[in-house]
Amino acid sequence: MHGGIEQADVTVWSSQLLFEDCSIIWLIAKMEVLQKLEVSGSSFTTLPAFPYNPHLSSLFLDDNRINTIPPQIFSKLSNLMYLDLAYNSLYMLSEDSLNFSSQNVIAFLDHNAITYIDERTFSGQQPILLDVSYNHLKGLDQGVFQPVLDNIIDNDDDSYVDATNNPLQCPSISWVLEDSLYLYFLALPEPPCTPARVLKSDVSHYSDAPQLAAPHDCYRLPCHLFRINDDDDEDDDDDNDDDDNE
């Protein structure tokens, strides 16, 4: 192993841990077969550039105090498949901050305070699943989210983008509300403005779509798509009454 440390999984839970002391970086560099690293409950606020590691596939950095992700820090993790940055203090995602060299990254950024995502945040490979729920996003920038959705659709992945529990405003999401295919792979909160309602005749278009591998029912389709137009309900009732009279 040429001085490498043989250990597949490492979990670190310490409120005193600081990435600045280089101990974790040294660990990653030396552990040549490291596949999963979990660092939670720590007080560090930023991340260093991770050294090249061809086997590290799961990186759990949730429940810390991370507020900044420098550019290119994940770009050398060529086999990364799972990145969890939930429950931190992120307030923005800058250019190149999530530059992935792997094509199969599932990224969890939920339960932060993100208000802004730069158009070139995902300047490398696009994630195949993205969770930005429970943040402070007021819009879904088309330049950010359309490539992610296109990647999911093109690869026929049973995955999604979760943007629930954000204070989204129209017209910032008008581009996605107008596209039923994007809506199928995107979970939205109740918008602050009323989107175009879906008629009963349109619901059948979605009923045959495959279910997504997601943790709750609304991920199969944003729930507002199944809100039937009240006027149509009344018209249908009137038609039924007329039929009965005949």
Automatic annotation (TrEMBL):
Highest taxon above the source species: Eukaryota
SUPFAM superfamilies: L domain-like
Keywords: Leucine-rich repeat, Repeat
PROSITE patterns membership: LRR
Keyword Repeat among UniProt keywords: yes
Keyword presence, Nucleotide-binding: no
InterPro entries, sorted: Leu-rich_rpt, Leu-rich_rpt_typical-subtyp, LRR_dom_sf
SMART domains: LRR_TYP (SM00369)
PANTHER family: IG(IMMUNOGLOBULIN) AND LRR(LEUCINE RICH REPEAT) DOMAINS, LEUCINE RICH REPEAT CONTAINING 53
Stated name of the protein: Insulin-like growth factor-binding protein complex acid labile subunit
Organism, scientific name: Portunus trituberculatus (Swimming crab)
Gene designation: Igfals_1
